[in-house]
Structures are given as C-alpha cells and as structure tokens.
C-alpha cells in the first residue's frame, strides 16, 4: 500500500499544472485519449485460478479480496500513468507545432509590415510627384478630373457652358489644372469649381513645362549665387503653375538630405561619349515641389566623383558628357518640354547638340533659353574635342558658330550657347548693357551684338527668406515698414559693437559692402568715405578682396582708422553684413560691374536708401529722387552713371543733404523703398515667363 501511495504521489507530481487538451485542437495532431482507454481495459482483465479455490489454497476470502483489490488498483494506476504519459507526449508535439505556427505567423506579419512600409513609401512618392507635376501624364489623374467635372455640373457648381472648357483643361493636361485639382481633391464640388474656374480666363497663359539643365541647385550643390538663383526661380515658376524640372550631375559631394522621395530608377540608361556608350545611374526626387533628376555616369573617368564641382583639367569632358546624357535622358523618357533652360558654359553644349542631333527625336516643339550669370567664364577648347560628345568640329568651328572671336584655333562653348539658343539672358539689365560694349564684353561683344535681338537682362529677385528685416535673426531688433523703431536700435547696437562714438540718431550712418573689392571699387569706396566724413556723418565698410594689394590696403585702413567716425572691417561674416545694412541710413554700392544688382535691392528691403550705379535708358532698380520730384512716391534712391569718383561723391552728397534737410520726405523715401516688391514672385518671374512665351513658336 505504501508503494501504491508513493506511485500515486509521483504521477500526481509529474502531472501537476498539466491541463488536458481537447481533441482536434491542432490540425494534423489527433488526440490519442480514445486508444489509451482501450488499452486500459485490457489491463483490467485479471485471470482467475482454474484448479484451486481460495479455501484449497488456504487463503481467506477477505485476504483474497484484498489482494485482488490491490492488484486491480495497481493495474489501474499503471494504465492511467501510461495514458497520462501518452497525453503528455502528445501535448509536447502540439506545443512544438504551436511554436512552428507562431514562427510562421511572425514571419508572415513581418512580411505584411514590410509590404505596408513599401506601400506607404510608394504613396509618399506618388504624393510628392503629384506636387511636382510628375504624374501629369497618368491617365487616372485626368479621368478622375473629368468625372469630377461631371459631378460639378450635376451639383450645379458649374454651368453647362463652362463644362466644355474645363474638360479642355483636362484633355490638354494643363499643369495649373492638375495643381489645383490635386490640392482640392478632397474638397466639395463648389470649392473645386472655385479653384478651377479662374483657369478659364482667356488672358491666362497655360502652364509651361520647363526643364533646367544646370550644375548647381541650393541646397543640394552650390558654390555661388547660381545655386540660389536656380532654386528661387524654379520655386517661383512652380508657384505660378508651371511644371518645373531640374537635371543635375550627381556629384559625390551632393547634400541629399533636403530631397524628398529620392530613389534610383530601374533599368539601363546609356549615353554616347568618345565613340562608345556608357551606362548611367539615374536618381529622382523632389525639392520643395520641384522635380529633380540626378545623372550619375558610370564612365571609368569618374567624372563627378571628385570633391569639388569645378576647376579640374577634364572639365570640358565632364560637362559635355553631362550635356549629352541630359538630352539622351529626355528622349528616353519621352519628355517633350516646352523650354530647356540652360545655364553658363557648363551646359552650353546642350544648344548645338539639340539642334544638330536631338531636335528630330521627339523634341521638335522644344525651345532653348540660355542664361549666363558671368560672361567672364567661357571654356575655350581645341575643336577636335567636340567630337567626344558627337558634335562635328568641321561644321561648328566657324566664326558664326563656336569659333572663338580672338583665338580662332579654339572653340568657345559659351559662344555656342549664345549662337544656338533661341533666347539669351543675363542677370540684370545693366550687366547686359555693359556686355554689349567692347570694354566689358569679355571678347563676346561682337557675338552678343550680332544676336542682340534675342539678348536681354532680367534683374534677379530678392530672396525673402534671407533678406527680411521683420524676420532677420542676425538683427538685435526686428522692424517693419509700419514700425521702424527697431532700425534705431540696430543703429545703436552697431555703433557699440564697432566702437563708433555714440551719437544722436539723426547723425547719418553710411554703410558700404564690398563682397570682392577690385581696384576701381576700392577707389570709389575711399572717395565715399572722404565725402561722408566731410559731411559730418559716420561710415562703416565691411568687405574683402582676393587681390593681395587691395587686401593689404584694407588691413591698414582697419588697423589705422583715419577718423573715429569711420570703421573698416575685413573680418567678413554674414551676420555683420545684415547688421550694417539694417543700421545704416544710406547704403553706398561701389560695385560698378556687379552682375546681379542685389545690393540696392537689399538696401531698399531694409529701409536703407541706396546710392548706386544706373545706366540711363535702362530700367533698373533705382529711381533717382531728382528724376521724379513731381511724384516722390516713385523715388527709391540716388544714382550715378559713370565709374568716376566725382560722380559717386556727387550722388552721395545729394543723399546726405536730402537726409539732413528733408526729414519727413526721407521717411517717405524709406517707405517707398520698403514697399517695393523685388521678390522672385514679382517682376522677375514675370520677365522669365515673357521670355519663354516669346520663343515658343519660333
């Protein structure tokens, strides 16, 4: 009995906490409890003695019954133990299967999560492309718009006579209609109609497809003003409803953090160069709504794997390869842009390549606008190298084409951009006028005069995100045209910072900025300093120069100031430039041949009246006070027309006298300056739109 008790305790302990699983719980694993019960019944069949009775054996009936009972219990316990062990083994198998199923479920769940992430990425990409206008050729977009037009008619949001014109916008793949529709897609019919109906204005020009082929774009790749120019112009065009794209080389040093939905296109893309075809990787993404394509050549020379953008011995090869690859890409993708906008000599080769090779490959309606930001850089090269990108040297090395005007044994890529483009622009009207002269034409004055009918200057817009006194973090106090009190705080703070004698706010302060001083600009700056001190005013100069002699003179002026009311600072920093512009009453601009003409615009934006060069007969930024005395609401500053020091000091003297004797009129002049809209969204983008429109059907 003790043994039985111990056996029962052992079995009970081994099964403690075990829960019997119901039959059929796990598919593929059948419960064996039934078979276990069948086997238990056999253990209960105890054979009885045949030849002897209990009495014959000498055993009492009670003892025999006890033995039989004990035997039966032992057999029952053994059978039950066997059953439990079988059940336990089955449970283990079921648990193993459960773990396998759990692992499979986790793998499936991970796959679903990955698919979800991929789908979300694709949706984000489509949304970005939608914003950029990249899916204008997707039929579903226009089909849905056509259905919504039907809905707007049924709900009374539009009239019957308007429906046909609205459908025409969809059938014409109008870029502005796509922009409005994607923006108002979730709105009701009346709100959508209110956005679309203004597009039916007969005076409205349809949106254009403009592709910029260039070598810089802020903040992806930038070494100067070109990068900021590209970004600002593209965004201004995009805001006007145009489809805008940019093609750039994929430099190794690109800053890709600002791009959205960046991905590599699948498939092979080859371009011709040097008698062979080379594979390229193509990357696409968006930057503030503008579609950006990056071309990464897999040429063994590693054209864009260097640290810097320019100034390598093989620059001609690098950029002519890029020009050819850009056109190959447009043809491969079937993009029929209205305008290819080219920039500087690095993309000038696109123009002859376009007309000699690609115009008949689906680009017959495309036209070229070429902008040169600085005609000083032209790229002269031996004619035979034109064949590398597929051009014919014998055909192009002629005086009326790419042959340089002064070195006829060389070809001039910049000249090719001028000759072969439908329109040529530069970055200000004054700079354009100077380039037509022999003195300042950098050897291209003859070519520019021959093509003067297509040459014009467009004044760059002002970057409002960088130059805005109401938001400028560099200023000790911000201000607006409605509240100018912060300007006096800026003046006091600058005087303290530079060690100028504290003075009454009415004492004029003349600021002068020299980004890269030349000999002539140094002469004009020193004349302005003498004039300012002679008028009992204060003078602050901030600038620099790469020319050693000029740098030495500026250092001497900084260390040995001529007067306590004059300070020269050559430890250049952007914050100080902003502070000088904001604190000054007058901004003297000594740069005679500064291409973009930005300094006078910056001065006006900060309520600092500019004194700068203007060319008579050319519409620039400054309207001289003396030219509009009958309507002072138009005046914006004081101008001089020559590079003579006497003319500069005469204009500055007029400004200082006007400030001294006409305080009320001076305040009105400040307001005139600050209320002028020199942003990219104003006259600048309108001028480019007009330039594009002028060449569409030539």
UniProtKB/TrEMBL annotation:
The question of whether Glycosyltransferase is a record keyword is answered with yes
Give the catalysed reaction(s), semicolon-separated. Answer: [(1->4)-alpha-D-glucosyl](n) + ADP-alpha-D-glucose = [(1->4)-alpha-D-glucosyl](n+1) + ADP + H(+)
Ranges for domain Starch synthase catalytic come to 209-449
* Pathway assigned to this chain's UniProt record: Glycan biosynthesis; starch biosynthesis
Q: What is its EC number?
A: 2.4.1.21
Residues in a coiled coil are none
The answer to whether UniProt assigns keyword Glycosyltransferase to this entry is yes
Enzyme class comes to: transferase
- Protein name as catalogued: starch synthase
From which source organism is this entry?
Answer: Sphagnum troendelagicum
């Amino acid at each position: 009995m003790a043994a039985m008790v111990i056996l029962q305790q052992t079995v009970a302990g081994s099964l403690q906490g075990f829960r019997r699983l119901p039959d059929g719980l796990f598919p593929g694993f059948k419960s064996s409890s039934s078979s276990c019960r069948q086997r238990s019944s056999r253990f209960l069949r105890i054979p009885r003695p045949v030849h002897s009775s209990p009495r014959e054996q000498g055993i009492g009936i009670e003892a025999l019954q006890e033995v039989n009972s004990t035997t039966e219990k032992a057999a029952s316990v053994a059978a039950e133990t066997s059953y439990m062990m079988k059940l336990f083994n089955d449970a283990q198998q079921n648990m193993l299967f459960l773990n396998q199923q759990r692992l499979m479920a986790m793998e499936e769940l991970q796959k679903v999560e990955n698919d979800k992430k991929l789908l979300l990425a694709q949706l984000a990409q489509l949304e970005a492309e939608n914003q950029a206008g990249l899916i204008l050729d997707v039929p579903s977009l226009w089909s849905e718009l056509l259905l919504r037009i039907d809905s707007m008619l049924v709900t009374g949001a539009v009239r019957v006579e308007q429906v046909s014109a609205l459908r025409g916008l969809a059938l014409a793949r109008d870029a502005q209609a796509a922009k409005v529709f994607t923006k108002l897609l979730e709105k009701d019919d009346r709100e959508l109609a209110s956005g679309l109906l203004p597009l039916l204005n007969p005076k409205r020009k349809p949106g254009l497809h403009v592709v910029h082929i260039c070598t810089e774009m802020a903040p992806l790749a930038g070494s100067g003003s070109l990068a900021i120019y590209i970004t600002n112009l593209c965004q201004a065009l995009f805001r006007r409803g145009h489809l805008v794209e940019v093609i750039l080389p994929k430099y190794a040093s690109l800053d890709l953090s600002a791009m959205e939905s960046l991905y590599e296109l699948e498939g092979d893309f080859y371009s011709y160069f040097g008698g062979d075809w080379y594979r390229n990787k193509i990357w696409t993404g968006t930057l503030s709504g503008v579609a950006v394509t990056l071309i990464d050549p897999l040429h063994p020379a590693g054209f864009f794997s260097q640290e810097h953008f320019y100034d390598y011995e093989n620059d001609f090869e690098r950029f002519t390869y890029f020009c050819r690859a850009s056109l190959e890409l447009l043809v491969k993708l079937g993009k029929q842009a209205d305008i290819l906008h080219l920039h500087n000599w690095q993309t000038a080769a696109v123009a002859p390549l376009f007309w000699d090779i690609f115009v008949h490959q689906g680009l017959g309606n495309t036209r070229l606008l070429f902008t040169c930001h600085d005609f000083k850089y032209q790229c002269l090269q031996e004619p035979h190298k034109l064949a590398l990108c597929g051009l014919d040297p014998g055909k192009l090395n002629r005086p009326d084409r790419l042959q340089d005007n002064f070195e006829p044994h060389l070809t001039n890529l910049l000249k090719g951009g001028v000759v072969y483009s439908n329109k040529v622009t530069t970055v200000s009207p004054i700079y354009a006028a100077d380039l037509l002269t022999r003195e300042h034409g950098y050897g291209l004055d003859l070519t520019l005069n021959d093509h003067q009918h297509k040459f014009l200057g467009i004044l760059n817009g002002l970057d409002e995100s960088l130059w805005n006194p109401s938001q400028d973090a560099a200023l000790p106090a911000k201000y607006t045209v409605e509240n100018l009190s912060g300007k006096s705080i800026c003046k006091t703070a600058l005087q303290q910072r530079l060690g100028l004698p504290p003075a009454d706010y009415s004492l004029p302060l003349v600021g002068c900025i020299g980004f890269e001083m030349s000999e002539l600009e140094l002469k004009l700056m020193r004349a302005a300093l003498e004039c300012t001190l002679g008028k009992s005013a204060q003078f602050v100069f901030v600038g620099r120069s790469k020319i050693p002699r000029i740098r030495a003179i500026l250092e001497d002026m900084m260390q040995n100031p001529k007067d306590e009311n004059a300070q020269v600072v050559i430890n250049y920093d952007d914050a100080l430039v902003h502070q000088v512009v904001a604190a000054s009453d007058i901004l003297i601009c000594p740069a005679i041949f500064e291409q973009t003409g930005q300094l006078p615009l910056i001065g006006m934006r900060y309520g600092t009246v500019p004194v700068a060069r203007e060319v008579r007969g050319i519409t620039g930024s400054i309207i001289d006070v003396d030219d509009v005395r009958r309507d002072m609401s138009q005046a914006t500053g004081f101008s001089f027309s020559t590079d003579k020091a006497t003319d500069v000091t005469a204009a500055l003297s007029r400004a200082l006298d006007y400030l001294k004797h006409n305080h009320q009129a001076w305040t009105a002049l400040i307001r005139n300056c600050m209320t002028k809209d020199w942003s990219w969204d104003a006259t600048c983008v309108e001028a480019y739109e007009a330039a594009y429109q002028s060449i569409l059907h030539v």
